[in-house]
Amino acid sequence: xxxxxxxxxxxxxxxxxxxxxxxxxxxxxxxxxxxxxxxxxxxxxxxxxxxxxxxxxxxxxxxxxxxxxxxxxxxxxxxxxxxxxxxxxxxxxxxxxxxxxxxxxxxxxxxxxxxxxxxxxxxxxxxxxxxxxxxxxxxxxxxxxxxxxxxxxxxxxxxxxxxxxxxxxxxxxxxxxxxxxxxxxxxxxxxxxxxxxxxxxxxxxxxxxxxxx
Length: 213
Ligand code: GRF
Description:
Elements lengths: L1 E7 L4 H11 L6 E8 L5 H8 L3 E4 L2 H4 L3 H14 L4 E4 L8 H6 L4 E5 L14 H10 L3 E8 L9 E8 L6 H30 L14
Parallel strand pairs: 1-2, 1-4, 2-3, 4-5
Antiparallel strand pairs: 5-6, 6-7
């Protein structure tokens, strides 16, 4: 079993998808040991409580420019729970290169577009879907990728395509991508990486830019 921490900042629907997948027996090599939230009082924390998963709040705003202090507190929680895999599920903070290096090939992230489109540091939340609609793409989707030094630049683990409809708004596209792609591929990718960790496989590190950079 791979002890896994899910990092959240907001609603936590992807956390819910992970819990549901685990309950269906679809993540047999994953233990959801800890939820880490960068914000206090969000619904993701309530979801953790509902499912009796331990949670900690490490408020990003309390550390302001002190990313090292923020990550030092994160590390103490990760050590305490002996965490081997980190799943970023709507986590809004970018880690320092040192933190990424220390957890190399052990941090994955879900991005609500088909990387390398509509990704990089300016693309989060509804902006991603707004940009996709403005560009007139006919399909979009979601990507789970390894986290490396480049925002949304790590090795792609899974992707899933979702149709864009003519009358889509950023909100309707966001919801369809979550329902049809994110909640499906995040648990699958988590299980894939957990199996690789157990097997001791080294995952090839790749660095790629987004088209938009
Ligand atoms: C998702 O769209 C995810 O792709 C992005 O942030 C959003 C988080 O949603 N990284 P939730 O908190 O899991 O509901």
